[in-house]
Q: What sequence folds into this?
């Protein structure tokens, strides 16, 4: 097999020179150019990932399906998580009350006072309640919060066990005598 002839080399030399050097036209192989074009086309389809193109229904649909699966596996806490009997049983458990008191001191005492007498938030020791004084009402209030009154939804911050323990602890504050109680707010709760 013979090498390239002088005529073939002259055909591939470009017309311009620089410092006495001529540029040789050596195009990329066709298979490389086709592969490069294919990667560009693939990247556009990959970024768009619409409809049945690609793997799945699209990245937005995949995201929404993932979020729905997570929400199903980790439901947001609501008042239905604990019933009155379970909460009242926790109110009789000394260890749960200690955990509830720790949580209350860390998260609740700044607004309701360490003894439950009320500061920014209402008095928790009297018989008057703004959002219901039944133990399930307290659980709903603590879990879902009352944003218009400034109380955050603690169900998004605290673990379910902490929620239940702090509600059990708050229920034991009713009837106590705080050092400096806030004036009654809300409706009286009958035993």
A:
């Amino acid at each position: 097999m013979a090498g390239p002839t002088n005529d073939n080399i002259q055909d591939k030399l470009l017309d311009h020179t620089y410092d006495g050097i001529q540029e040789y036209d050596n195009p990329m192989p066709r298979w490389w150019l086709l592969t490069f074009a294919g990667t560009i086309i693939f990247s556009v389809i990959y970024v768009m990932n619409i409809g049945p193109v690609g793997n799945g229904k699209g990245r937005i649909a995949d995201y929404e399906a993932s979020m729905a699966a997570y929400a199903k596996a980790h439901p947001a806490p609501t008042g239905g998580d604990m019933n009155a009997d379970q909460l009242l049983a926790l109110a009789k458990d000394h260890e749960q009350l200690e955990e509830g008191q720790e949580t209350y001191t860390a998260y609740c005492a700044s607004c309701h006072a360490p003894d439950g007498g009320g500061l920014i938030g209402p008095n928790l020791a009297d018989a008057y309640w703004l959002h219901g004084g039944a133990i399930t009402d307290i659980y709903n209030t603590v879990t879902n919060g009352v944003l218009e009154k400034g109380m955050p939804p603690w169900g998004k911050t605290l673990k379910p066990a902490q929620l239940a323990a702090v509600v059990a602890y708050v229920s034991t504050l009713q009837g106590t005598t705080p050092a400096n109680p806030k004036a009654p707010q809300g409706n009286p709760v009958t035993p």
Q: What stands out?
A: Residues 127 and 190 are 8 Å apart (CA to CA). Strands lie at 13-18, 21-24, 128-129, 187-188. The longest strand covers residues 13-18.
